[in-house]
Amino acid sequence: PAVNAKALAAARSVLVRLRDVGILPLRVMPSVEGGVVFVLAAPPRYADIECFNNGKVMIGLSPDDDDSRVVEVTRSSLIREVPRLRAFIQTYDSETDVEGGSEG
């Protein structure tokens, strides 16, 4: 289904909140279920925020240990959840930096 006005309104709110905490999505794309998806982290971890055509917003976190978590958020709970997403992403980035190492 095509993206509708409810999904776009929710996506705008999400994008503003992401900007406020300094997160840039890796990808923004239409959802196969109707809506907009913000992809925030890449394998082996995965994080996304999906804004559906019915106005619902879901956050998905999948750490590399297969302990996936999906939660529905409201606009007010999004304020609490986005910093958690940032911590999740930063943990991944830090682990990648350590694993990749650097020779100086």
Distance between the termini: 51 Å
Q: How many E-type strands?
A: 5
Q: Strand order across the biggest sheet?
A: 1-2-3-4-5
What percent of the residues sit in helical stretches (DSSP H or I)? 40-55%
Major sheet description: 5 strands, antiparallel
Please tell me the overall pLDDT: 84
Low-confidence stretches: 96-104
The multimeric state of the shown protein is: single chain
Q: What class would the helix/strand composition place it in?
A: alpha+beta
Order of H and E elements: HEEEEEH
Radius of gyration: 14 Å
| Form type | globular
Strand percentage: 25-35%
**What's the helix count?**
2
Short structural summary:
The chain is an alpha+beta fold and about 100 residues long. Helix content is about 40%, strand content about 30%. The C terminus is likely disordered.
How would you portray this structure in words?
The protein is of the alpha+beta class and 104 residues long. A 5-stranded antiparallel β-sheet has the order 1-2-3-4-5. It is globular. The protein is built from 2 helices and 5 strands.
Topology:
Elements: H1 5-20, E1 27-30, E2 35-41, E3 46-52, E4 57-62, E5 69-73, H2 75-100
Antiparallel strand pairs: 1-2, 2-3, 3-4, 4-5
Helix pairs in contact: 1-2
Keywords:
alpha+beta; disordered C terminus; globular
